[in-house]
Amino acid sequence: MAYPEFNMEHQWLPFTPNRSFAQNPRVFVAADGAHFTTHDGRQVLDGISSLWCVSAGHNRKPINEAITRQLATLDYATAFQVSNDQAFKAAEMIAALAPGDLNKVLFCNSGSEAADTSLKVALAYHRARGEGHRHVFIGREKGYHGVNFGGMSVGGLPANRKVYGTQMLPHVDHMRFIHDPVNHAYIQGSEPVWAEDPLLELEQRILPLHDASNVAAIIVEPVAGSAGWYIPPQGYLKRLREICDKHGILLIFDEVITGFGRLGTAFGADYFGVVPDMINFAKGVTNGVIPMGGVICSDRIYQAMMQAHSSSPEHAIELFHGYTYSGHPVACAAAIATLQLYQQEGLFERAARMGPLLGDAVHSRLRGLPHVVGIRSLGLAAAVELAPGPVAGRRAYEVFMRCFQNGLLVRPAGDNIVLCPPFIIEPAQIERMVDLLADAIAQPA
Ligand SMILES: Cc1ncc(COP(=O)(O)O)c(C=O)c1O
C-alpha cells in the first residue's frame, strides 16, 4: 500500500504495537455520526465511541460551532490568578449533573491528570483537617486510572505497571479483582450476587494492616472499564461507601468511562445509588472533541480547605495544584455545548434504551462461539471474554484486526473484546456491529 499523503516515520503510537502497525496501518481521515472514513476510503463503524469518548457521535454541529465561536471570542487565557467565563459556566453545568454535595470542579486535561488531581486533593484535605498522617491509597487489582505515576500506582493492570515498578508511589495497596468467572461468566444488565463478601478482605486484612487511620482514599471505577467491563457485585459500592465513612476515608469514583451517560444515568454514582467524595471525569464531557478532564469535589472537601486558610494572608493559595490548561475556554465551550446536546437529545436516556438491545444481541449471537467463555453487558457497553490462548491477549487482538478489516472498530482489552458504541447508535447498527464481531470470532485464525 502506498501512503503518498503522509510520512509514517515519525509518530510513535501510544498503546499500539508499532512494528506491526507499520505493516498494516489503520488511519482515519474523516468521521461522521457513527462512522469513520479510512485513508483508503473505507467506512468503519465506531463500535467503541472512539474509546468511550464520542457519545453524541462524530462531527456534531453544535459542538463544532461552539468551538469555532469560542476561538474567535476568547481563544485562551491563563488559568492562574484569573479565569474565564466558559470555565465557570461549564463547572456550573457539571456540578448540576453531579449527585449529592459534589459541587466544586477542578479542571484538568485528561483522565490521568484527574486521577492524580483527586489523590492530591485527598492528601491536602486530610492535612488541612490536621490528619496529615493519612497517606495510604487503596485501589483495586485490574483498576485503570490512567498512566501518570499516581493513577498508575493505584491502578492494577499488570502490563501498565510492570516496566515502571520500581518507581511506583509507596504506601499503596490494592483490593482484590471482583470477578467470578465460574458463577458469573455471563452477566446481562444486572449486578451479580456474590455468596461471599468481596469487601471482607478490605476490612479484615488491608485496613488493619495499614491501620485505617492512615488511609487517605480508596479509588475505584464503578465498573472496571479498561480491564474489560467487569461489573461490581450487588451492593459492593454501597458497602464500600459505608466502610469509608466508618473510618474517615475518602471515596473516589473514577468515572472517566461511566460518567456522562454510559449507564443511562449522568454518573455511575447515580446508577448504583452511592455518592462518593470525588468523581473523576474526562472523555465524554467534551464528546472527546477537545481534551478535558476534571475532579468534582464535595462541598465538605472544599470547605475544609478554605477553612484551614481562614486566617492565612489574603494572597495565600489554598491548593498548590493546577495545569496551564485547566478550564481552557475552548475546551469549556465544547463541554457546555456537549452537555447541552446530551440534554436536548435525551442521549443518556437513549443510552439506557439502546443498552438492553446491545445486551440482547451480544448474549444471543456470541454465546457458544469458539473460545467465548464469558459475556458481560451493562448500560450501553458489553464485553465478550475469550479463553486465553497460548499467548495472552493474542486472540482478542486477532479478533480486533479481523473486525477492522471488515469495517468495525472494537477494543481489545486483555482477552476481552469490548463494545461501547455512541449513544446515537441505531438498532440496525447494533445488529450489524454484533454480526461483524460474531463473524470475526467464528473465523479461524
Ligand atoms: C477509568 C479511567 N481513568 C482514567 C483514564 C485515563 O484517561 P486519559 O487517557 O484521558 O488520561 C481512563 C482512560 O481510559 C479510564 O478509563
Defining traits:
binds pyridoxal-5'-phosphate; alpha/beta; 15 helices; 37% helix; Aspartate Aminotransferase, domain 2; 16% strand; five-stranded mixed β-sheet; seven-stranded mixed β-sheet; 445 residues
Compact summary:
The chain is an alpha/beta fold.
Main sheet record: 7 strands, mixed
Rg on CA atoms, Å? 22 Å
CATH 4th-level superfamily of the largest domain: Type I PLP-dependent aspartate aminotransferase-like (Major domain)
CATH architecture of the largest domain: 3-Layer(aba) Sandwich
Strand % is: 15-25%
* Total count of domains: 2
The CATH class of the largest domain turns out to be Alpha Beta
Question: Which kinds of small molecule does this entry bind, naming each only once?
Answer: pyridoxal-5'-phosphate
Tell me the distance between the termini: 23 Å
Number of helices: 15
What is the general shape?
globular
**Helix/strand class:** alpha/beta
Lateral strand order in the biggest sheet: 4-11-10-9-8-5-6
Q: What is the overall pLDDT average?
A: 97
- CATH-defined topology of the largest domain: Aspartate Aminotransferase, domain 2
Question: How much helix is in the residues?
Answer: 25-40%
